[in-house]
Amino acid sequence: MKKIHIIGLGLLGGSFALATKKAKPEMEITGFDSDEQNIAIALEMGLIAKSLSVPDKDTDLVILATPVDTLFDLLVKTLDQIGEHTLVMDFGSTKDQLCRQITEHPKRAQYLAVHPIAGTENSGPKAAKEDLFDGNVMIICEMEKTDVHLKGMAYDIFDALNLRLRFMDPKDHDLHLAFVSHLSHATSFVLGKTVIDKTADERNILDMAGSGFASTVRLAKSSPEMWGPIFIENKTNVLEALNSYIDHLAVFRDKIEAGDIQGLKDEMLEANKIRNILNFTE
Amino acid sequence: MKKIHIIGLGLLGGSFALATKKAKPEMEITGFDSDEQNIAIALEMGLIAKSLSVPDKDTDLVILATPVDTLFDLLVKTLDQIGEHTLVMDFGSTKDQLCRQITEHPKRAQYLAVHPIAGTENSGPKAAKEDLFDGNVMIICEMEKTDVHLKGMAYDIFDALNLRLRFMDPKDHDLHLAFVSHLSHATSFVLGKTVIDKTADERNILDMAGSGFASTVRLAKSSPEMWGPIFIENKTNVLEALNSYIDHLAVFRDKIEAGDIQGLKDEMLEANKIRNILNFTE
């Protein structure tokens, strides 16, 4: 394995380039982005060695790291361009629709549907971090539909990047992600909007917002270009998650309104269990 | 100034003790907690030199760092116990009701209403951190009602702890805090509860939850004993904030349902402004 081509030189694509360069310095990394400025930055930062609008025929691996609403067309176009020993994979946060759309494609075996559970609220090539993937989960969907040899090549590089592999049905993936990722992005965007709409005097927000607010609203800084398509494409699951959240909020609000302090404490004690489930660092 | 007495040896009281010990090693710090185990831990950790159920008459400063529903009775009791050169202040996250309740008290001038904008999702004396207050804001309400000399003593110690003083009307304080603190705690508790209720298989949450979810749900680990009384006492403002948030969520949900990607992106672009307002660190 010698050549990787990355389409979409933002946070994920750029971080994959940095991590791969570190783990496998011999790899030749090329890339492309629809934004010429991103290409220039990626070249300057050394994320890619050169920019190519079409990957070389002997490229081993093509990564698609663009917004989810661009992925189907890009995947079909890329499968048409590549040689027979090339694997294509996308990093999209939704997997079900794309897997269904591509299922009958003659080169389906040259595609691997993956989703790295990694990110920050920042976007663009400058946001790339060499350790973004380190120790995190890579979800792989419909692994049985991908050629064994090509898949093995992908697993090698995932291992080199210290990713932990998890295998999952695309429908399950999209439902679970709606609750543990897409929902928290929506709640954070809306929290930011609510507070901005209320508090015209920005100085007051600045002064009184503690680290708790900063943590809760952090994802409100995320890219609308990335998240708009995710919410729309995963609409059914995101709506289920959002409606459930709104129902839970109404219960909480009603308990406050009723002055039901014991009921409130019971709700919060249940929520406290997140402490045992997520063993995350501070 | 030689003696400080701290009632409530949890995160805030304990952190104040640690920071004061560092900034003013000559200070004698005594304390009390309704939980005997907290007293034992505070003594063992050296947060306090000894435990006293009633502060010495020559104590310079008494801090009340207990849940907000206990503060009025505790403040009245403490004002009755202290000498005439002692200042009492509370660290409660709501200020309006307490300021109104205490306004006619004959020793009103010996009370200073403050609220340190500092905290973590952890509670109890073991959660105390020496640098919890460092560089953060201390909000002071109705400063004109406190004796000038006693107030000066408080400002000296706030300066020593590197707190930045802000002066504010208690009603304004409670309204703004509802939006920039109490709301984000409510949204985080409810997010935790929603995800726990949905995802019975904890392993799935653990695997697929990225750092974004962890950040957004962090406050769901907060103490119900502390937060129940805050939500109830600041009910009017918290309900305004929660209802506004639910309205904003419904708008966001409706745009997803309608497939209105441009409308969604506009909402998120507005929310992105939080990046300019809050210059917080990652």
Automatic annotation (TrEMBL), chains A, B:
InterPro entries: 6-PGluconate_DH-like_C_sf, NAD(P)-bd_dom_sf, PDH_C, PDH_N, Preph/Arog_dehydrog, Prephen_DH. Pfam families: PDH_C, PDH_N. The keyword rRNA processing does not apply. It comes from the Bacteria. One of its GO terms (molecular function) is NAD+ binding. Keywords: Oxidoreductase. Residues 2-282 form the Prephenate/arogenate dehydrogenase domain. One of its GO terms (biological process) is tyrosine biosynthetic process. NCBIfam families: PRK08507.1. This is Prephenate dehydrogenase.
